[in-house]
Amino acid sequence: MESIPFYFLAALAVLAALGVVVMRDPVYSALALAVVLTALAGLYVLLSAPFLAAAQVMIYAGAILILFVFVIMLLSPGREGDAPRGALKWQRPLAVIFGGALVAQLALVLLMTILPTGRGLYTPEYLAQIGSTQAVGAALFTDYLLPFEITSLLLLVAMVGVIVLAKKKS
Amino acid sequence: MTLDPIVITLIEAVVKTIVVIVALLTAFAYLTLVERYVIAKIQSRIGPNRVGAIGGIALLQPIADAIKMIFKEDFWPSQADKIIYTIAPGIAVGTALLAWAVMPLHPSTEIFGYRVDFFIADVNIGVLYLLAIGSLGVYGIVLGGWGSNNKYSMLGALRSTAQMISYEVSLGLALVGVLMISGSLSLVTIVEKQSFIWNVVWQPLGFIIYFIAAVAEVNRLPFDLPEAETELVAGYQTEYSSLKFALFYMAEYINMITVSAIAATMFLGGYQGPFGILPGVHWLVLKIMFFIFVMMWMRGTLPRFRYDQLMRFGWQVLLPLALANIFITALVMLVVGA
């Protein structure tokens, strides 16, 4: 009974992810990506992490992807078939390397979940006890405070850079 | 015969969902009539007084409007993106309705020995859920504008994207103050904590920022840039007719009801009466009606912002004020030691 929503969402995510790559029209690709992100949010809910799910939808589907769509519409690049082929030759080997790395990483995570010693602190029971929002907050502001602050600094630098570039008088 | 508890929960959820949707659609139909009367009064006109009029109020007007709308030609612009053009109004209405899944409507009561909760779901991230669903609402407008293959629609869609993303930030930050003093993201808990004093007493600035940003989020005057009729014909909905247009119209009104309900729930105690007097759904309805009246009043009296004014106001006035509100709230909470 509980696995039905999981399989539905997982299948939806995989199909939509395929759509992102296969679709000829960039707007359709972006919409397929929105479906992937929303399906992933659903999976987060099933994994008793509703905070992560809401943040996922709000930030990725609701803000970042909307900006993607915005830029696609502004530039209206048309269909992919019109673009000259083989412009980026180094993309293929790079894709193989990164794809391989991702598969290795997933295998590692899978192994860690199957082995009883590899189970993390945040089990569903523990999350139900302290609350998923509190768990994220506590992790961010205690164990991962430095990476968290560095990330925010990075975003600030990027923002300042954008403003400098955009304000430049040509 | 005893039913599985899961089945009972499922039936309960379905019944509640149907009741909420029917109530919202009826409210939408009659709000169009109310808006026509309010605007008519502001402009010293009489307003509709023919269809099924009782005492000068045209009670059947919404039904007449609906029938007329259905029989209009369903127009397809040439070279429009058929799929996106069709699903855009659906996305707009769908996201507008989804927000109501977490809204607490009435205190939980026992009916025939069975405890009934008057909300569809009490998720412990209710406020974030509302913000997430609200941020998806912009897809309906953007896709509608893009799919129509029309310059005016496209400009309206681009404007709405920029506007809604800009004001969403202030909207979310304005609610943070309430979250800080409530210590919860669950709407049910937030309402229950306001049983005696409403949050607006502690968060007047947050309340004002929220309301301004909310009016911008639902694209009502003075922030109706996405459909500014003097420049863009009708913005993103220029090419829409018949039922698809009706769906966009419906989404706009349901969104008005939703943001009013959120304002009432977060700042004015939701279904709680003033000083704990007779809590119940009637208070929520009254508060929603008040906010909607204010929005109609604003439409009748305020001119539209210019686009650059809109952006400057959002980023340089509302956002710093919202951040200041969070800072002051935190400071006061630290000093008082709450």
Descriptive report:
The complex is a heterodimer of chains A (170) and B (338). Chain A has helices at residues 3-22, 26-46, 50-75, 91-114, 124-130, 132-143, 145-167. Chain A is an all-alpha fold and 170 residues long. Chain A folds into three domains: 1-79, Four Helix Bundle (Hemerythrin (Met), subunit A) (Up-down Bundle); 90-120; 127-170. In chain A, helix 1 (3-22) runs antiparallel to helix 2. Chain A is globular and about 55 Å long. The N and C termini of chain A lie far apart (62 Å). Chain B is mostly helical and 338 residues long. Chain B has two domains: 1-71; 76-336, no CATH class. Helices cover 65% and strands 4% of the residues of chain B. Chain B has twelve helices and four strands; from the N terminus they run αββααββααααααααα. Chain B has helices at 5-42, 61-70, 82-98, 126-136, 138-147, 151-182, 187-192, 204-217, 229-232, 242-267, 281-301, 307-336, and strands spanning 53-54, 57-58, 106-111, 114-118. In chain B, the strands form two sheets. Chain B has a two-stranded antiparallel sheet. Chain B is globular. The mean pLDDT of chain B is 83. The A-B interface holds A 1, 27, 31, 34, 41, 50-51, 53-55, 57-58, 61-63, 66-67, 69-70, 73-74, 131-133 and B 6, 81, 84, 123-125, 128-129, 131-136, 138-139, 142-143, 146, 154, 157-158, 161-162, 165, 168, 185.
